[in-house]
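Can you please make up a protein's amino acid sequence together with its fold in token form to help me picture the idea?
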Amino acid sequence: MTAIFKKKNFISLIITQLFLMGCSTHVVVVSEHPPALIKELPYKIGLVLDSSFTNYSFIREKDDEKITISLGKSQSELLNQTFSSMYQSVSEFITRPLRPTKSLDLYVSVIVEDLQLSLPRETSVNVFEIWIKYKLEIFDSEGSSICEWIISSYGRTQTRFLGSQEKALHQATNAALRDAGVQIITGFNQIPEIRNWINKEKAVKNESQ
């Protein structure tokens, strides 16, 4: 009886593991970020993206389902491409240098503050939704803080257009990343502190000519 009982327990364990494996979704976000067609400003940017950002993965375990969305590589490429479109050059750093170099004009440090997702079965609408909250900290060439800026991006997709949950989550995440890129391009230089910094830099340049 003991052998039979152990065998049944073993079979039950295997079935449970297979069930849990079947309820696991892992999305590796791959996307293309074409350069924005805007006039670049003549400044050099130090983009600070630490390992928690470049390797970022969102994990949610709920109702016996595990969902993992790995978007660190894609969001890092997005930010590099976005700031490269806006400014003369971009240099990436893992940490902000303790002794800032005069060759760079601004440092922009970016972190993911939050990521949330909503599945069709959790809402009254038949869509997948993704929200990503980023915090940007901006410093001048001396390392002094200029300001912090929070952006909340959003992406959604219709389930009826896609064949799997993985594809739906991938598309919704890409939409959220594109939204973040658009917000940075249209809003970054309009931040009052950044606009004031640009005006001061222009005044200094005009005085030196």
